[in-house]
Each structure stands twice: as C-alpha cells, then as structure tokens.
Design brief:
CATH architecture: Alpha-Beta Barrel
Number of domains: 1
Order of helices and strands: EEEHHHHHEHEHEHEHEEEHEHHEHHHH
CATH class: Alpha Beta
Radius of gyration: 19 Å
Strand content: 15-25%
C-alpha cells in the first residue's frame, strides 16, 4: 500500500484524520504516477517507465541518491507534463484532493511558473491555470462538507537570478488571486539570496511574505543570506541551522547546548523551519548527523524551542505523505499526540495568512486534537 493510501496510527488514533497544516510541498513533486502516464501520452512525452507502479518505483529509486542535485533531476519528468493549462489545472486539482485526503486543512503549494512556458503559456496564464485547479478542488471538498484552504507560493529558480524580479512581480500581481507568498528554489550552493537582492527589496517594499530554501544543500552562510538579504519569514528546510548549535556536555538525563548568534536569532524571532524529514535524508541535508530519521536534528531543535514544522517537500519523489512524516518522527523520537499537535500549531502560526485566518486554523487544530 502506498503512503497516500496507508493509515498511520499513534496512541490508537489515526494520524491521517487529524487536522494538519502543510507549508512546504512542491506542486511538481506531488503528481500521481497515473496522471503522469496519462498526460505524457496526451503530449507524446517519453517516460522512463510506461506504467504507474514502475514509474513510482523509478522516482523513489532516483530520489535516494543522497544529493539535492541528483534529486532535482527527477523533476524533468513531472515538469514535462505540466506545460498546458489543462495539465496544470488537473495536477493542481488532484494535489489539493490528496492533501484533503491526508487531513490537511491548510496547505501552501509552491511551484516555479518559469518552468511551464514550453508550450506557449504566459507566466500569468500558468498562475491562473493552477488557481483554477485549486479552486475546483476546494469547491468539491466544501460541497462534500469538508474544509480546506490552499494558497500558492510562487518560486523563482535561484540558478536564474535575472528572472527573479519578474517572478516576484508576478506573485504580487496575483496576491488577491490565490498567491500568498514568494519562494526561491533550485540548487542552493553557489546561489545565495544576495544574488537576488533586488527582487527581495521589491517584495519588502510591497509587504509581501517570503520564504527561502536555505540550510538544505548549503550551510549557515546560506541561512544568513536568506534572513539578511531575503528577509525570509520562514526557512525552507533550515535543518543545517543545527550547525550553529554546540553540544557542551551530556549526562543521563540532559543535553546542554549553546546557541550561536544566528540560531539564537532564528529561535527568538520564531522563524519557522520547514523541515521535511524523508527528503532531508534523501538529499543529504542531514548527512553531518547520520543516515536515518533518528539522526535528524529535528528533535534537538524541537526540544530547544525552535518553531519546527513537518512537511513532505515532494510526495511523489519521497513516496510519502504528511501523515507518514509525522509517524516516522513519532517512531524515531517517541512523540505523542501532544507533540504532533505542537507541530501543527507551529505551522498554522507561520502560515502566510492574515492573523484572523491563522487564529481560525489554530482553533480548528485544537478542536480536532481535543476530539480524539
């Protein structure tokens, strides 16, 4: 049984049924394999495998390379079938349907419009197509008596810094039509936020929220640039912030840790870390600490009071779901339902929404967890 279809239990409670918030989830990393097969057939795109099951296996095997660069190569396939308005709308609709099936009540879906122009769409048309799919799925959920809200995060590819301002302007242009924030994605090392400073200046002048991929494939200098040059309100992954922590000593009951100035700043200002445990393992983001989920610095960051959130990053490539990620952490670190609730409250508080809507999410999470 695949991760999206499997039920995960903790303390006898279905994690799938609990209300959850997803902040770091890539549209081109969350396609259904069968959808890829069908869309590829429509446009004549050759795939590495011709049926959905083998295609799923191909994605998962290629994604376990231990390198972000290798991990990103799988996106050539998914992006390839997302080049028409109909294809984008279908992928977005199914994306939201799958979030809802996993118990997500608020999700932010990030994607890079500049990657979807090969068949003649304009940047604005790509955003409109994705939003049409989102709107259709949300309406379907509501018609069935459910609840979900979804916002777009427009990503600019950091290896194309000359286009970042255009994508920033695109995001602001659609701020009243479903776009809630801006992101930078792609190869992190060698492309700090400082190379896109003009775009971030523009976004700041427009009071538009920003998250930046940092602390995944590069270290503290990348995080520092995301905060200083990018004015990031959240850090995409951010796990290598743990490099700024020093374990002074340990005994049978406690670990004593000192924080550097950078990590202290992130903690004190409650800047959310958008961690994605399985993906962080696959891309080598936590290689310094080990090779299993139990080696992930997530628990250390959580125990120290950082605003940690749990995410999937790319559900297809990692063969995962948000419920699965939470179950993996609970198994690795002995978490209880109260801990899982704390992660959802962290994410809701960090959502790129007006305060009133964030408070509504917080209430929905509290009610949902109290009901079990």
């Amino acid at each position: 049984m695949s991760a999206p279809d499997r039920e995960y239990l903790l303390e006898g409670v279905s994690i799938n049924a609990l209300p959850k918030v997803s902040l770091h989830d890539h549209l081109d990393g969350g396609l259904r394999p069968q959808t890829i097969v069908e869309l590829a057939d429509e446009i004549g795109l050759e795939l590495p495998a011709s049926d959905a099951r083998r295609l799923q296996d191909w994605f998962e095997s290629r994604s376990n390379a231990g390198s972000l660069v290798e991990y990103l190569k799988t996106f050539d396939v998914t992006v390839g079938v997302m080049q028409t308005a109909a294809g984008l709308a279908r992928v977005a609709r199914e994306f939201v349907e799958d979030l809802h099936a996993d118990g997500v009540i608020y999700g932010e879906v990030r994607w890079a419009p500049e990657q979807h122009l090969a068949r003649g769409l304009s940047l604005d048309q790509t955003v409109e197509a994705v939003q049409s799919g989102i709107d259709q799925a949300v309406a379907q959920v509501e018609a069935a008596g459910g609840f979900i809200r979804v916002g777009q995060l427009l990503s600019s590819l950091r290896q194309n810094p000359g286009q970042t301002l255009e994508i920033a302007q695109l995001a602001v242009r659609h701020r009243d039509d479903g776009v809630v924030g801006f992101d930078t994605a792609g190869p992190e090392a060698g492309f700090p936020a400082s190379t896109m400073r003009g775009a971030f200046d523009y976004l700041a002048s427009e009071w538009f929220p920003v998250t930046v991929h940092a602390g995944e494939a590069d270290g503290l200098a990348s995080i520092r640039s995301a905060l200083l040059d990018g004015r990031a309100l959240r850090l995409g992954h951010g796990v290598r912030l743990a490099e700024d922590l020093t374990v002074e000593r340990q005994d049978d009951e406690s670990t004593y840790v000192s924080l550097g100035l950078l990590s202290q700043w992130v903690k004190d200002r409650e800047i959310a870390l958008e961690t994605s445990p399985t993906s962080n393992l696959q891309t080598g983001a936590i290689a310094r600490w080990g090779e299993t989920i139990a080696d992930h610095p997530f628990d250390l960051l959580y125990q120290l009071g950082f605003r940690v959130t749990v995410n999937t990053d790319n559900r297809l490539m990692s063969g995962t779901s948000l419920s699965r990620e939470l179950a993996l952490l609970a198994d690795a670190f002995g978490y209880r339902l109260d801990d899982l609730e704390a992660f959802q409250l962290n994410a809701a508080a960090a959502a790129f929404l007006p305060i009133e809507e964030r408070e509504e999410l917080l209430d929905r999470i509290a009610v949902g967890f109290d009901a079990v």
